[in-house]
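Fill-in record for DMXL2 protein.
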Amino acid sequence: LTGAQDGSVRMFEWTRPQQLVCFRQAGNARVTRMYFNSQGNKASTTCRCGVADGEGFLSIWQVNQTTSNPKPYLSWQCHSKTTSDFAFITSSSLVATSGQSNDNRNVCLWDTLVSSGNSLIHAFTCHDHGATVLQYAPKHQLLISGGRKGYICIFDIRQRQILFTFQAHESAVKALALDPSEDYFVTGSAE
């Protein structure tokens, strides 16, 4: 899956030189993040991919479409300025997003199975100037987010509350990684 500054999103297969599908044409907002849902290889779950963009939107497609320019089955504006990252929480029915919104609700939980007007489950007011990255820890049901000012926030998604906030860097947090046992996480910054 490839995404570009021009907003285009294309999917390729390793053994074929041409694209399989063009999910978005050039001329859309720049792509900020893309993921496949991790449950997509199971026979009972349809494989999906999500694309976040610079205008605050998150769009999700079913991957096994036969048309060359499929429409997303879900597309909504998650943040008023930009959606910088997201994570599939439960298959693709629950999604967390990070970004920048005018009201500082910069980390949000969304239910994709309800109408777009009712899909916001919870919005966390955090990260002045926006959240840049997001990592989901499934064993502990935690979200870890990094912000533009170098802060890290850790959220309990079951209780929908912020557990910890601390400054890890002097500049924007650009990367988060979690070890498989969920004992440690690593942060990377703009400096």
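KEY FINDING: The CA atoms of residues 139 and 182 lie 7 Å apart.
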